[in-house]
Design goal:
With about 600 residues, the chain is an alpha+beta fold. It has three domains: about 200 residues, Beta-Lactamase, CATH 3.30.450; about 120 residues, Beta-Lactamase, CATH 3.30.450; about 230 residues, Phosphatase 2c, domain 1 (4-Layer Sandwich). It is built from 14 helices and 22 strands. The strands form four sheets. Strands 1, 2, 3, 4, 5, 6 and 7 form a seven-stranded antiparallel sheet that branches. A five-stranded antiparallel sheet has the order 9-8-12-11-10, with helices on both faces.
């Protein structure tokens, strides 16, 4: 009787353990699937950020070079120096050049393409590579680039005339004094960096990554024979799987997702895909072998079965619970490291969006600028920006409410809106009004931005500006005082607000000092704020000592703040921007 009872207990426990095993197996399989999806999405997102860092750097570099090229159109031999500076200052760019319309310079011939290349040994080569054998005039990217009127990325190609390697080129039209497009300014980026970024890590040893262009051309994949020789449609043409064709269409349309398909060699794989942000039209995908995804699960199942047959259910349960606890701790640690890594990448991308090369216009003697931005966290919500268009300096400074990642996202949107709107609008109040409408329309989180936008005429010194709830700038010149500002509300609070513009005449030698409240509201260990009086006192000292250059003023304010706060923790983002207007000394021969 006891034997039968024991057998009944053992059979009952065995059945319960088997049922538990089946349930746990299914849940574990689902958990592994979700984990793989999360890891794949994270890998695609991180690689996207790394690619965007390069793309933004290239686009910023060529945008900052356009004005210099347009100023030297009457001196074609000087254009090499403009392109050379762009190549030397941006290690990502392996070559650059200007492609002019046919016979634009009759003395230069039918084709004129001054090109500067960075060779693998670090040397710089300059050459005019336009010719009948390198007829860029008939190239699709030249014809469409001239018509586009804005920057665009080319399809990947092999350049046998300039850089002599696989490239992608970002081009921007160059306009003459009449506003007519006369040339394309291009920056060449080698595809080797893309391959190194994409293949820097893999979810599994056998998983691999693929990148295709907007037309489906294979740019990166483990089979080098397919790179730049086949399209993704040609590679998968032999597959009868309709899901494969669906994925191809999804990638070509710039969509993201994942699906299980049959691989080229008949193996079952899972494909995760997502577009590369921006205007490149590229798409990335991660391909994982399903056998490898669930290999660990199958192995663990075999061990659990052995434990069940051996009657060590309790020990198996303890081991299982312990393993799960260790796994949770490992995932938590990995998640923390992942977040930290993404924040570092985000900070690098955020910093690359703002001008950080000073002096920014070394060839000009009518303006001098310097800026400083110190976020309170890994990423911040302060911003500044400036650029020159039509002999006018467009500049802004802003402070997003809040701190951290949400503020940094609003900061990026604000800076992008300013750069886009100031590229075609001249009135600060129009720029601020348009920014307010755009941001108020999507402001579900009730965040706002205090903003100051100015447009300084570099020929006359006339300053047009619009203040949206920001600190009034300080004018330091023959004397010192605050620039009068209207009581406009911050950007993003209320749609339909009528922002008021103002104007003032800035005398030669005057420095406009702009800052965020991270300077005046900085606290020391006893919670006393730095305040506007200490700021003004430091500015008086700079004026008295003749240290009124933008860099000197910001250095004095920074040192004064450091001495005041001591070891107290920084509580808010700190940004300063100083602009000194000088006598306009350019002669007509230099313009």
């Amino acid at each position: 009787m006891k034997y039968k009872f024991s057998v009944a207990i053992i059979v009952t426990v065995a059945l319960l353990l088997e049922l538990i095993f089946i349930v746990e197996y299914q849940f574990a399989r689902r958990g592994i699937r979700k984990d793989v999806e999360h890891r794949a999405e994270t890998e695609l997102r991180v690689k996207n950020l790394e690619i965007q860092k390069v793309i933004v750097a290239v686009e910023t570099a060529i945008t900052n070079t356009v004005w210099a090229a347009e100023r030297l159109l009457e001196r074609p031999d000087s254009l090499y120096s403009v392109v050379r500076r762009m190549v030397e200052q941006n290690p990502t760019i392996v070559g650059g050049g200007l492609m002019f319309k046919a016979d634009y310079y009759p003395q230069k011939g039918h084709w004129f393409e001054p090109y500067v290349a960075l060779r693998p040994d670090g040397t710089i080569e300059e050459a005019q590579i336009g010719s009948a054998s390198h007829n860029y005039l008939e190239a699709e990217f030249f014809q469409n680039g001239i018509k586009a009127g804005q920057g665009r990325w080319s399809e990947p190609y092999y350049d046998n005339a300039g850089a002599k390697m696989m490239l992608c080129t970002y081009t921007v039209p160059i306009h003459d004094s009449k506003g007519e497009p006369v040339a394309l300014l291009g920056a060449d980026v080698s595809l080797e960096w893309l391959s190194s970024v994409i293949n820097s890590s893999h979810i599994y040893p056998s998983s691999y990554n693929v990148v295709i262009s907007r037309t489906g051309m294979v740019m990166v994949c483990p089979d080098e024979s397919l790179v730049m020789r086949s399209t993704i449609q040609e590679v998968t043409a032999a597959s009868a799987d309709t899901t494969t064709r669906h994925i191809n269409r999804q990638q070509m349309e710039g969509k993201s997702g994942h699906a299980d398909i049959t691989g080229i060699n008949g193996e079952e794989v899972t494909v995760f895909y997502a577009p590369v942000d921006g205007d490149t039209g590229w798409s990335m995908s991660v391909v994982c072998d399903k056998k490898e995804i669930y290999a660990g699960l199958r192995e663990a199942s075999a061990y659990l079965m052995l434990l069940m047959l051996a009657g060590l259910a309790l020990l198996g349960y303890i081991i299982y619970r312990t393993a799960r606890s260790a796994r949770s701790l490992q995932e938590a640690t990995a998640e923390k490291e992942r977040i930290g890594s993404e924040l570092r990448i985000a900070r690098g991308i955020q910093e690359s969006m703002l001008p950080k090369t000073f002096p920014p216009y070394p060839e000009r003697d009518d303006i001098e600028l310097f800026a400083s931005l110190v976020p309170a966290k890994e990423v911040g919500g302060d911003l500044y920006d400036f650029h020159i268009r039509d002999e006018k300096l467009f500049f802004c400074i802003g402070d997003v409410s809040g701190k951290g990642v949400p503020a940094s996202l609003v900061m990026a949107v604000t800076r992008s809106l300013f750069r886009t709107l100031s590229a075609r609008e001249d009135k600060p109040e129009t720029i601020v009004t348009a920014m307010n409408e755009a941001m108020a329309d999507m402001n579900d989180s009730d965040m706002f931005v205090t903003l100051f936008v100015g447009v300084l005429n570099l020929k006359t010194g006339q300053l047009h500006y619009c203040n949206a709830g920001h600190e009034a700038p300080l004018l330091i010149g023959r004397g010192m005082g605050l620039l009068p500002v209207s009581n406009n509300i911050p950007v993003g609070l209320m749609p339909g607000w009528n922002y008021e513009g103002q104007e003032a005449l800035v005398c030669a030698g005057t420095t406009i000092f702009l800052y965020t409240d991270g300077l005046t509201e900085a606290e020391n260990g006893t919670h006393v704020q730095f305040g506007s009086q200490r700021l003004t006192k430091t500015a008086h000292k700079a004026l008295h000592d003749g240290m009124t250059s933008p860099e000197s003023i910001i250095a004095l304010q920074t040192n004064a703040l450091r001495l005041f706060v001591g070891d107290a923790k920084q509580s808010d983002d700190l940004t300063m921007l100083a602009i000194q207007y000088k006598n306009h000394l350019f002669s007509s021969s230099r313009v």
